[in-house]
Every structure is written in structure tokens, then in C-alpha cells.
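As described in the Methods, two query proteins were run sequentially through the folding procedure within a single session, without resetting any intermediate state between them. The first query and its resulting C-alpha cells are shown here.
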Amino acid sequence: MNKLNINKNYTSIIAIVGLMMTIIVPFNVYASYISLTILILLFPFFMYDVIYKKSYKKMKHIKYLLIFILAYIITIFLSEKNNLISTVHVFIWMIIYMIYIYPSNKTIDYKESLIQFYRGNKIIIIITAMIQVIAISFFIFNYGTKVGSTFIGMYYNRNSGITIDSIQLSWISITCIAGSLINYTLIQNKIINAPKNKYFYLGCIVLSLITLETTLTRNTIYSTIALFLFIIFIYTFKKLQNRFKNILAILLLSISITTVSLGIFLITDKVIRKELPNIIIQLPKKDSMKTPSSEINSEQKTNENSEGNTVTTNQPSAESPRENKNTVSLERSKESRFKYGLSGRYEIWRCGINVIKSYPLFGVSTGDMIAKTIETNEGNEFYKVFENSPNVFASQHNAIMHELVASGFVGFILLTLFIFYMAKDTLVYLYKCKFTANFKIVCILASIIATFIFVIGIGQSIFCFQVSFISAYLWYIFQYLEMCIQLKEVEE
């Protein structure tokens, strides 16, 4: 039985790592092959768990997810111009997130579960750290290229190399930070007996912060700041709760300390981002930048890779930082194509609102999103911005908008209920429990989930309808959060 339990943990890790590999392949067909191969490998384990072990039945709020799945099936049948293969692909991954990766093993004890969690995270951390080291090395030694308005470390052309864009590299970084924080906490609180390894995880956090600054992706940099702020706020609130009885005073003091921390983070980030171009200029460079094939652009990436820091249709050719050290800041300040700023997201959201008005109850599903966006918006000023590149509408670049467009208000409400009750249980636990090792673990897990959904989710569609490693990792974290907040007997 333990062997099967360990297999479940490691098959979840295989899914996350496998999806991570889809971001470093050049064309959508290869990424799809990788994703489908992982799906085929996972399916026997998934069916065994659903039919025989029925892990999903043991999760407290699973009913909202099961009803959501039924509602989404209705959405698929109602869609008129559905890309069936793409829709089924996303739908099966959605089920695996909710019914396989999310449910925890109740047959093993608390400590054994966290040991498995530690081992799984370690695999993810090692792989993300290796990708970042390679990316930074390419970046420093001028093997990089320019994607959108950002210089990045990895690239691909038809003759050699691999590709990874700045937003995907930043997702790698924040995943590494999240995993490292979890494993460091497990070691620090003596749940895992590996005291020397904590320095490795601290090093991975530093490496990831450096990588984030080289990508210059605003959403993920601010998400990382938000992650640390969530942790600071929860820790501060709990410490003050033990000293004061007035809840208003505790709240105000906690907010004040968090606000001061925010100011320090923002000032530090501003200084680093100001000095980074000057540091890069002074690094030894080769005479010429390697330029990727002009045929490779953001539209060729899969649904896994459709997210970007800036929504672009024609990638500008690479130029050396030596030629213009302020290229990034100048291009970001212009954004002349986008009347309302936000890198074109505002126009996408306005088009999405029109789709929601036309299909409010069940939405249009992921496979029908582009066709329905064109149908409901053709001719208006917001659609004209992307008239020649309608593939950008495969994603709404916002978690809430994406759920509403894909599954309508029915699906959105069901997912919101799941998140609401998970949040309620977590907050009640954090408020009532003592300052134990388990409290610290819950604090880290809750902060990661809050950051992924409510901060990264502002600019990216990561929560449910995205076949990507960061979505899979989010559901993986959900599993252990629910397990930890149900451990009343451990606390006693």
C-alpha cells in the first residue's frame, strides 16, 4: 500500500516536471506531444485511484469541483465551433488536477506525507534550479536573444538551441522559490532531518530572485514580493495575537509592519532594476547576438505557452544591450499599440466581457474561445488591436476573466465556492491554532496559493484552464494545505 501511495506522489511530480519540459521546446506540436505522452502515462494511475482507492471522496470540498466538472461537460456540448481535440486535452488535464493531483493520501500518517512532499519538492527544485543556471549562463555570455521587450537567456533556431521566454522563465523562478520555502520550513522545524540542506534551499531562493530580475517580468516580480508579504503578515499577526487581546490593534500593527516591508521590497527592486542594465553592459560579450528564426514567435507556442509578459504579434529582432542599455524601459514606456496600457490586456478583457454577455451561463469552453471572441467583437476598437493575430484570445490573461469566458457564471461560482471554503478553513485554522511547526507549514502553503491565484492571476490565466506546470503545482499545494489544516489531533 505504501508503494502505491509513493507512486501517487511521484506521478504527480512527473506530471508537473513533464509539463515544465513543454516550455523549452520550439513548436506547439512538440509541446503537445509531451503533454499527451504524460497524459497517457498518468491515465492508468488516475483510473486506478478513481475506481479503487477513491481518494477524491475523502476531500472536504470536492463536491463543488465534481459539480463544476459536470457543468463544464455541458459547456463543451453547447459549444458550436469547438476545437474538440484541444478542448478534450484541456478537460482531461483539468480532471487530473482536481481528482488526482489535489486529493491527498489518507492511508499514510502526517509525517510520512510531509516526507513525500519534501522529496517531491526537491525534484522540482533541482530541475528549476538547473534551468535557471543554464538560462543565466546563456544570458551572461550573450547566447540570449530578445523576446518582446526583454532580453532572456535561452533561445531556439532551426539549427540549434532551445527556447524559453521571459514569463515562462519567471514562472520557473517563482516555483523554485515556493518549493524552496516549503522544504526550508520542513527542515527548520525538524520534520525533515537534513540540516545542511537548508543552505541549498536558501541558495536556490537567491538564484531565483536573480533570475527574476534578469527576466524583468513585472507580474511575477511583484508576485514574489506579495508572497513574502503574505508570510510576513501571517507571522506578524500570530506573534501579536499572543501578546495583545484587541483584534483591531493586532490588525493595524500587522498591516503597518507589512506596509513597511512592502516599501523596503519595492525600493530594493527599483534599485536592482535600475542598476541591472549597467551591470549587464560591463559583462564580457561576444561580438554578435545569435538571432532566432523569424518564423518562431509567440503564436506558435501551445496553450501551455500562450501566456506572455507583453502581448505581441511580431517579435522585434534581437539587439545587443551594448547598443542601447535602455531598450527595455523605452519600449515599455511606449506601448503605443495599446491605447489603455497594460500591455494589451485591457483590450483582451474588454473583448472577453462581450463574450460573457453573449454566453453568461456556461461560457464557450477553451476550444471555442478564439472563434467566439471574433464573432462577438469583430469590428470594435478593442478587437482591431489584435485583428491580425486572433490567437492571443486563446487566453484572457486574467484568471477571473478566463474562468468566466470558458465556463460562464455557473462554473465560476462553483470554483469560487471551493476557493472560498478552503480560504475560510485555512483562516480559521491560522487564527485558532498555536504557533506550531504545522502552523508555519500552513502559513507558507496558504501564502503560495494566495499569491498564485490572486496576484499572478491578475495578469495570467493559471488557475484551471491552463495546461501548465504552474497550474499543476498549484493543485499539488492544495493537496497538502487541506491535509495540514485538518490535523486537529496533531495540534492537540
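Immediately afterward, the second query was submitted; its sequence and C-alpha cells are:
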Amino acid sequence: MRRLMMICLAAVTLFASTAALTGCVVVAPRHPHYERVWVPGHWEGRAWVDGHYR
């Protein structure tokens, strides 16, 4: 019984370390049209336009 527990523990540790090193993604990325992009402030003619999310 003790040997079986050690084998299972080693297998779980090996799997966890492999998953951590491969950089696996657990959560699916959001759709691109939901992404918000910061537009910095800029001059438009003689008026200053503050930064905003687009």
C-alpha cells in the first residue's frame, strides 16, 4: 500500500511539474472584439483629446 501511494504521488508530481513547465492555459482567452485598447492623449488640431479606452 505504501509503495502504491508513493507511485501515485510521484505520478501526480511529475504531471504537475510538466504542466507548469509547458505553460498550459486553463482559462480560454476572451474574444478579440471584447478587448479594450488604451488610446493615449493626443493633439487634434488645436484641441487636446484625453486618453481613453477604445
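Residues 19 and 26 are 10 Å apart (CA to CA). We note this only descriptively and draw no conclusion about the first query from it.
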